[in-house]
Specification:
The protein is built from 24 helices and ten strands. The protein is mostly helical. The chain folds into three domains: 137 residues, no CATH class; 164 residues, no CATH class; 139 residues, no CATH class.
């Protein structure tokens, strides 16, 4: 939104037009798209799906969103300072919206709603909003259309687009093309989904793209689209128990060693691809993992999280990690954990808490390693239950938002990662929106020190000095993170 508003280049959309009717996704973010008109050409998005989803999700008002609390409405902060770098557009939950400051973008293309939303603003603000609306009404999205029925050409296009650092989520299209008559793995995927459901990982079996990447990684040692279209469907079916064991072994490792209890907890679902290569075994065999191998896998995991390894150059990094996984499993020298990461305490101060982001998920997993306790009773929190359901209501501010707002602190300051802990809604309500020194009496005194220790919380919080405390806590969190990436 900010790039469109400022006139910055934001890339074109790449469309693949074909005569073939393929299996395809009908969800665009939290929106289920209607059936297409059979009289119109068939176009598939090869590159730019996230951009299209963003634009569509911000401005459309005809389709009701399915339940997805990670999908937040976007607002124009007309009081924010205009600058070349900083964005004036923010994603906010309803409770965070300040009506006199945050203007909803989903009204821009509805004349009646726009007029109603701009009522009451002084002329200068209204003029600024009108100028902003005009920019979006006049903006156009460049589109390139690639028309072919040749699968080799499509694979090359996919590969070249990906070299530019764009993560592709369209492997299912290639699988549908390549195995259109011989692709009976859908039932195998469905069976795997049912097997994983009791452990909170049903989503793995439902994510066809992810499973296909695992298939290609195990069978071909490469998760790229080009490797996928070269796979033989019969070979994948023949080795599916090996692939399935690899995925199950990867999930068991994540659950046992990292408190990851659902696909939603995983900062990158991509982690399952190289891990499935390490744990892939035929029949009823199992991988006997050594302590040194476990240490290497954990270091690779944490370093990849903090370095945001799979946010760009995905296929390149996957290919490298798959090869190093094979070397690690064979007991050979490997560079799997040699992921460069530059981490300091500011990570926990500069990032804001949004449950769907990579940095927040990484932060939550870091907290989980300390086995947090209830802030009221001091009893252990059932991480399996909390992280399997995984929603924003299980995490709250240490320094309550209501208390910090009395100090006129902005939301960016209040919502730092370092100001959040595992805390259910009931505990949060019992403690109330008061200063820590006031809610201290509502905590179990016999467990207070232990509660703070299991939450990386300095006791200086009870002095009510937020600036000093949040810096101290960020340092503690940084020290804990350094141990994991060592």
């Amino acid at each position: 939104m900010d790039s469109i508003y400022k006139g910055y280049p934001f890339g074109s959309i790449l469309i693949w037009r074909t005569r073939e009717q393929l299996n395809h996704e009908k969800d665009l973010g939290p929106y289920r798209l209607p059936d297409r008109d059979p009289e119109l050409p068939i176009d598939y998005v090869l590159d730019g799906q996230q951009r299209l989803t963003s634009v569509f999700g911000v401005f459309q008002t005809d389709i009701e969103a399915q339940d997805d609390e990670t999908w937040l409405p976007i607002y124009f902060d007309h009081q924010a300072d205009a600058s070349a770098q900083e964005s004036q557009f923010v994603a906010l939950q309803d409770a965070e919206v300040e009506a006199d400051r945050h203007f909803p973008l989903n009204t821009l293309f509805n004349s009646a709603e726009y007029r109603q939303a701009t009522e009451g603003f002084d002329p200068e603000v209204a003029r600024r909003l009108d100028d902003m609306q005009a920019v979006f009404k006049e903006a156009t999205i460049p589109v390139q259309t690639f028309e072919t029925d040749n699968q080799a050409q499509v694979a090359i296009v996919f590969e070249r687009v990906n070299r530019m650092g764009v993560e592709l989520d369209t492997l299912q299209l290639l699988s549908a093309w390549t195995w259109s008559e011989d692709f009976d793995l859908q039932q195998a995927f469905a069976d795997l989904s049912e097997t994983l459901e009791p452990f909170g990982f049903k989503g793995v079996g439902e994510d066809t793209n992810l499973l296909l990447r695992c298939c290609a990684a195990v069978v071909a040692g490469d998760a790229s689209p080009n490797a996928l279209v070269s796979l033989n469907g019969a070979e994948v079916r023949r080795r599916f128990d090996e692939i399935s064991n690899g995925i199950k072994g990867a999930i068991d490792f994540l659950r046992a060693n990292l408190e990851i209890h659902s696909l939603k907890n995983l900062p990158y679902t991509t982690f399952l691809v190289p891990l499935s290569v390490f744990f892939a075994t035929p029949g009823n065999q199992a991988v006997n993992i050594t302590n040194q191998q476990r240490t290497t896998l954990l270091s690779w995991f944490w370093r990849s999280c903090f370095a945001r390894r799979f946010s760009s150059g995905v296929l390149r990094n996957l290919k490298a990690d798959i090869e190093e996984m094979r070397r690690l499993r064979a007991g050979q020298d490997n560079a799997l954990a040699n992921v460069a990461v530059n981490l300091d305490a500011d990570f926990f101060l500069d990032n804001r808490f949004y449950v769907g982001t990579v940095n927040t998920k990484t932060f939550i997993l870091l907290l989980a390693q300390k086995r947090p306790l209830s802030f009221v009773s001091g009893q252990p929190i059932d991480l399996g239950e909390v992280l399997r359901d995984y929603n924003r209501n299980e995490f709250h501010h240490v320094f309550p938002q209501a208390f910090l707002k009395t100090q006129d602190r902005p939301l960016d300051d209040i919502n730092r990662l370092a100001n959040f802990v595992f805390m259910g809604r009931q505990d949060n309500n019992l403690l109330g929106g008061v200063a820590p020194s006031e809610y201290r009496a509502r905590m179990d005194d016999s467990h207070a020190t232990e509660i703070l220790d299991h939450a990386f919380c300095p006791s200086s919080m009870f002095a009510d000095d937020y600036d000093r405390w949040v810096r101290n806590r960020a340092e503690l969190l940084h020290q804990a993170a350094q141990i994991h990436i060592a």
